[in-house]
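The passage that follows is intended for readers who have already worked through the single-chain material. We present the inputs for a multi-component assembly, then the predicted structure in tokenized form, and finally a short commentary. You are encouraged to pause after the input and sketch how you expect the pieces to fit together before reading on.
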Amino acid sequence: DTAVSQTPKYLVTQMGNDKSIKCEQNLGHDTMYWYKQDSKKFLKIMFSYNNKELIINETVPNRFSPKSPDKAHLNLHINSLELGDSAVYFCASSRPPSEQYFGPGTRLTVT
Amino acid sequence: QKEVEQDPGPLSVPEGAIVSLNCTYSNSAFQYFMWYRQYSRKGPELLMYTYSSGNKEDGRFTAQVDKSSKYISLFIRDSQPSDSATYLCAMRTGESGGSYIPTFGRGTSLIVHP
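Having made your guess, compare it with the prediction:
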């Protein structure tokens, strides 16, 4: 009974491809997030959705497009993958003002 | 200067030692302070959460906030090999457009050896 789950766990793909990462939470939270963690371990917010609506969109290339079909799901689609997109992507959820629960991460490697 | 500074380590200590992990920050508007623990190849998990200045204790863990110095600490007593992980500090202001987005430090890698 994982609280925040992501698929796939690992993703290896070539430059120029399009890929998606899925996230689901069963905590009943209203707000979901996507973070990127680079090789130096910095966690950077990418997107935040509240009740299926985009709240925060940090400076992220428009090749990244989040989609929230319902409150429990927030997917991330990435077009035209680049080498610099290689990182670990974390989904998280929360019921503000409480803090965030993170998923296990998706390790993306672009070759 | 980054908003949140945290020494990446690694910090290596013997089992049973008292560990002190620290972060400094520059934004005086931060009011909520968190510590997350991240095991290798796992997601961060919330360990401690404090509001404003003061201390908070939970078992072997104590979080300390000194807003006047813009300095927060996490102390681990009687450290165990299972405490080996990366510890990320995080902090935020109040509500921000319906979401509560913390600013994270880069994490300190802790190794507790038997």
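Commentary: Chain A touches chain B through 25 residues (CB under 8 Å). The longest strand of chain A covers residues 43-50. How closely did your sketch match?
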